[in-house]
Design a protein that fits this description.
With 125 residues, the chain is α+β, with helices and mostly antiparallel strands. The chain has a single domain (3-122), classed as Nuclear Transport Factor 2, Chain: A (Roll). It has helices at residues 3-19, 24-28, 46-55, and strands at residues 31-39, 42-45, 58-65, 70-74, 77-90, 93-107, 113-122. Strands 1, 2, 3, 4, 5, 6 and 7 form a seven-stranded mixed β-sheet that branches. The model has no long low-confidence stretch (mean pLDDT 95).
């Protein structure tokens, strides 16, 4: 395991903390401008997600890893796959989620790693 993978793991942990702060601007700082979330209803662009958080339409209460993650450097990017459990509210309705997430992190000129893509799938029970 290399330094890049460890750096991305640290970024992912920090991002989990920011997600539960519900600070839209700070959350956006972890994403590339063209970041996209892919879920069961298809792709959601960064601007939509950040607007939902800023307006309170989407609120995160908890975000925690479940088990070990997997980080692999592929060319110039790092792909992180992890299982995460979260709680929050969507349009005032409480939710609980248990999901596998794969994220692609790309290095920036200033040395930071930003997420360019997040793909989530619910854990089947």
């Amino acid at each position: 395991m290399g330094a890049a993978e460890d750096e991305v793991r640290a970024v992912s942990r920090a991002w989990d903390q920011v997600i539960t702060s519900n600070d839209a601007e700070q959350m956006a700082s972890f994403m590339t401008d063209d970041w996209v979330y892919v879920g069961p209803n298809g792709p959601t662009p960064k601007d939509d997600l950040i607007a939902w958080i800023a307006s309170g339409r989407l609120v995160h209460h908890t975000m925690r890893p479940v088990g070990a993650d997997r980080a692999v450097r592929v060319g110039g990017v790092v792909v992180l796959t992890a299982r995460k459990a979260s709680t929050g509210e969507w349009e005032g309705q409480s939710y609980e989620a248990d999901e596998w997430i794969s994220e692609v992190f790309v290095p920036q000129a200033d040395g930071r790693w930003l997420c360019a893509l997040s793909h989530k799938v619910s854990v089947e029970t």
